Amino acid sequence: MERQTFSSTEWSRDRVEQTAARIYDPEKVDKALAVGRAADATAIRDLLQKATRGLGLACEEAAALLQVEAPGLQAEIIEAARQIHAENFRRRITLTTPICPSNRCVNDCLYCPLRRSDAKLKRRSATAAEVQREVMALLDEGYRCLMVVMGDDRSGVPYLRDLVSAVYGVRSGYRQIERVDININPLSLAELRELRQALRLGIYHVFQETYDPEVYARLHPDGPKSDYAWRLTCHDRAYEAGFETVGMGILLGVSDYRPDIVAMLMHAQYLAEIYGRAPHSITYPRLIPAQAAPASHEPACDINDDVFRFVIAVTRLALPTTELILCTPVPTEVRRDLYGLGISQVSIGSLSYPGAYTSDGDPSAAGVLAIGRPRALEALIYRLCEAGFLPNLCCTCLRVPTRGLEVPEGAEKWSFQDRHTTNALVALKEYLLDHASFETQMVGNHLIQKQLSMLSGKIRSLVVELLEEVEAGLRRQRI
Ligand code: SF4
Fold it and tell me: Residue 163 C-alpha to ligand 1 middle, in angstroms?
């Protein structure tokens, strides 16, 4: 796919509309679903063979899997996802947490607890000093990577710039936040450039929510977010502004998930072809019933835990190395299963109101029942280690863009994975020594030994050496 050239350095309305039309073509989505619908059990098993070699899936191939209804064949799809996920992620789960400095928003999204028309919700924007107190609490708990999540409060780039600088400025001993990701409204090219030049930012997440323009218009009746095409083109502007990588997502439950996922995969493929970099991650939030958010009580599509599991499995097969982020509440046993078949990152302690991690916050400002709790990190690390998963607190590896679609066969992915595993083991050892209780140290060290036994001789020796350095007091050693 060739990139179109435009004379303007900013994005004109024509450019926005033309780019949006290239990203989302409803006829192409329908065609992919129709082709996929024709696939029989033999064709589906052929696709699973391809996917388990780590080759990813074309959009119409993913469309075929998404439309499988036979329980036996669905189970085969889930098992195939389990296999490729284990090979590519080696039971590694990256841990991050959101920080929500403002709950003000000018938009009126019908599914959201922060929507403008909820006049009863107490609104607040945290100061830089308040945010720094939250960051200190999170650093002391052991976090290294944060995601700043905000509605569209029109405070613009200066507020965000000061806020992220304040986050990076907090020190607790040797510790500081290593990477800040942002999940904010779509910005202009000039704003993104300004941010990019001023700050070491990680991933720019923007979720389209739904690709269906009619459903989108119904759910976003007012405010800047009602501009479908402006939102759809924000990843292009981010890459153009110099962001290394971006995150995408759709809100499950607001529309039929199958066309939305196919459209999102086409969008990911478009970005990979135009910019040479596939998106870093996919996130699938689910509708959560919330006060004053009518659409959150009337899902257009039931996304129960089985459907959610199936969606994660198909996405893992289509995008074998892309991070899949869990940010939605699920029962513990389902969550554990998802870690084994596709989820590679989890956003925990998801407290969505200013001051959530200190006594500055007021939980009623979240608009929904808070789904996380302070000091959640150690409990999760304990449970992950106990279940044989490797909790990953290292963010440096995530600065390298993942390959995403169509990974070629060969050895490269193994060295890439060795590096991720090594850094995760070193960061875990640091956490155990600096933050963990005796019980968590026991279960964590056992996990480290188990992971070491799975590494090849050369890598194992290197990791053992690095772990000894951590024991001796060295910190933040990464390869
Ligand atoms: S979804 Fe985001 S933009 Fe929409 S009302 Fe909520 S916070 Fe604002």
Answer: 19
Which tens digit of pLDDT belongs to each residue from 139-191? 999 999 999 998 888 888 888 999 999 999 999 888 889 899 999 999 999 99
Question: Would you say 132 and 354 are in contact if contact means Cβ atoms under 8 Å apart?
Answer: no
Atom 1 (ligand 1): residue with closest C-alpha? Answer: 112
Q: Domain segments of the chain: what residues?
A: 94-375
Residues 6+ apart with CB under 8 A from 437: 378
Q: Tell me which residues have their CB closer than 6 angstroms to ligand 1.
A: 105, 107, 109, 112, 114-115, 151-152, 225
184: CA distance to ligand 1 center in Å?
9
| Nearest residue to 228 via CA among 257, 267, 258, 195 | 267
Instruction: Report how far apart, in Å, the C-alpha atoms of 32 and of each of 28, 81, 406, 439 are.
Output: 6, 21, 18, 51
301, 256 in Cβ contact below 8 A?
A: yes
Burial 103-117 (b: 16+ CB within 10 A, else e): bbbebbbbbbbbbbe
Kindly indicate whether the domain formed by 94-375 is annotated with CATH number 3.20.20.70: yes
**pTM confidence score:** 0.90
Cα(151) to centroid of ligand 1, in Å? Answer: 5
Closest ligand 1 atom to the C-alpha of 185? 3
- Compute the distance from residue 35 Cα to the ligand 1 centre, in Å: 36
